[in-house]
Design brief:
- It is a single chain.
- By secondary structure, the protein is mainly α.
- The radius of gyration is 33 Å and the shape is elongated.
- The chain starts with 23 loop residues before the first helix and ends in a 15-residue tail after the last helix.
- InterPro entries: ARM-like, ARM-type_fold, PP2A_B56.
Length: 446
């Protein structure tokens, strides 16, 4: 039990309805202090009465904060943040398990570790959430207690293995960001630092998806034109988040943030697409399918000028994905032509892109093992052919000529190697006459 606790949990306190209005705040402070008592939840048989008294008291605090109809005093703010700190910022979190961030392993199949104290922690979170959200909480006063140190400790909790806790933290931090404008740059910087450590040092963190979800909402509210600080955040933190092997655990939220940036400022499309290409997965097919899905969302928000800046390296990669032996990768790449906006961008740059794409179309038509991929490939060929049949035939002819030229080159190379082998064999025969191994005379020296 915490040494600073003023009211022990076996001392009954009256209900709020049983005291006069002038005494309610003092009673509230007493009840908050009672809830500073901590109990061992690893042993379900210990302190049963005290635990239940604390649980009921916390529920009363939730009701009081929710129904408050006067500004909270500074004393109340101080006591609430103290109680929240004692309960939430616990030092004995269960040791995190090793993050099995291995390609091909679905990390989300692991059962999360649930905190045994959740029956109390949940209500503490609820009290704090209602307090932060309340119109009776004056941000100018509360910022003295919900300060940088408090926010950093709150952010540390995002690494909790318990998804219920991370969900509360997400909602609370978002509320703090909205209410305490003075803390906004600090919160963004602190999240940025968590991402840096995750990307470049640990590749282990349980709360990346939740932090990105908060950021998705923050980015949505950015004013235009975007500040340089925000663009740097995109380049230095968000785009490199595609690198970790466990990206599947937060990719949906990451993709939303990235797309928000491009929708806010279409000039960022080239930067984003080149960033995706930089971190493009080489051996992880499921990750490649995700990248192709994100690419479609980004291209949906991309305008012609930005598309033209990156289309050549982009379509070289799309061609490689179309030829993937993993049918879902090939399918996802070919599905890009189902998007009217993307198809329109391609048609406007037809003469640059068809020569890049055509060899991949031809290889799929001839050799791909999957019938659905071959069928989709024929559909894409038809789109190109219908758009400009003369140029399409020109590309077919060019491909056939290059293929013929390659066959001739291969044939010449093969003939050259054969000739070199024959020459080597002949030379070997001259150096080693029959019956005289290693070229030495069979006669003994006199």
């Amino acid at each position: 039990m915490n040494g600073a606790v003023l009211y022990h949990s076996n001392e009954p306190l009256p209900a709020f309805k049983d005291v006069v209005a002038s005494e309610k705040q003092n009673l509230f402070v007493k009840k908050v202090n009672l809830c500073c008592a901590l109990y061992d939840f690893t042993d379900p048989t210990k302190n049963l009465k005290e635990k239940e008294v604390k649980r009921q008291t916390l529920m009363e605090l939730v009701d009081y904060v929710t129904s408050a109809n006067g500004k909270f005093s500074e004393v109340v703010m101080q006591e609430i943040t103290k109680m929240v700190s004692i309960n939430l910022f616990r030092s004995s979190n269960p040791a995190p398990r090793e993050n099995k961030a291995i390609e091909g392993v679905d990390l989300e199949e692991d059962e999360p570790l649930m905190d045994p104290a959740w029956s109390h922690l949940q209500i503490v979170y609820e009290v704090f959430l209602r307090f932060v959200a309340s119109q009776e909480t004056d941000a100018k006063l509360a910022k003295r207690y919900i300060d940088h140190s408090f926010i950093l400790r709150l952010l540390d909790l995002f690494d909790s293995e318990d998804p219920r806790e991370r969900d509360y933290l997400k909602t609370i931090l978002h509320r703090i960001y909205g209410k305490f404008m003075v803390h906004r740059p600090f919160i963004r910087k602190a999240i940025n630092n968590i991402f840096y450590r995750f990307i470049f040092e640990t590749e282990k963190h349980n709360g990346i998806a939740e932090l990105l979800e908060i950021l998705g909402s923050i980015i949505n509210g950015f004013a235009l034109p975007l500040k340089e600080e925000h663009k740097l955040f995109l380049v230095r933190a968000l785009i490199p988040l595609h690198k970790p092997k466990c990206v599947s655990m937060y990719h949906q939220q990451l993709s939303y943030c990235i797309t928000q940036f491009v929708e806010k400022d279409c000039k960022l499309a080239d930067t984003v697409i080149r960033g995706l290409l930089k971190y493009w997965p080489v051996t992880n097919s499921s990750k490649e399918v995700m990248f192709l899905g994100e690419l479609e969302e980004v291209l949906e928000a991309t305008q012609l000028a930005e598309f033209q800046r990156c289309m050549v390296p982009l379509f070289r990669q799309i061609a490689r994905s179309m030829n993937s032996s993993h049918f879902q990768v090939a399918e996802r790449a070919l599905f890009l032509w189902n998007n009217d906006h993307i198809e329109n961008l391609i048609k406007q740059n037809y003469k640059v892109l068809l020569p890049i794409i055509y060899p991949a179309l031809e290889r799929n038509t001839r050799n791909h093992w999957n019938q659905a991929v071959r069928s989709l490939t024929l559909n894409v060929r038809k789109i190109f052919s219908d758009h400009d049949s003369a140029f399409f035939e020109e590309c077919v002819q060019r491909f056939n000529d290059e293929e013929l030229k390659q066959e001739e080159t291969d044939s010449k190379r093969e003939a050259l190697w054969k000739r070199l082998e024959e020459m080597a064999t002949s030379k070997l025969g001259e150096n080693h006459p029959s019956g005289t191994p290693n070229g030495k005379s069979s006669q003994a020296a006199g």
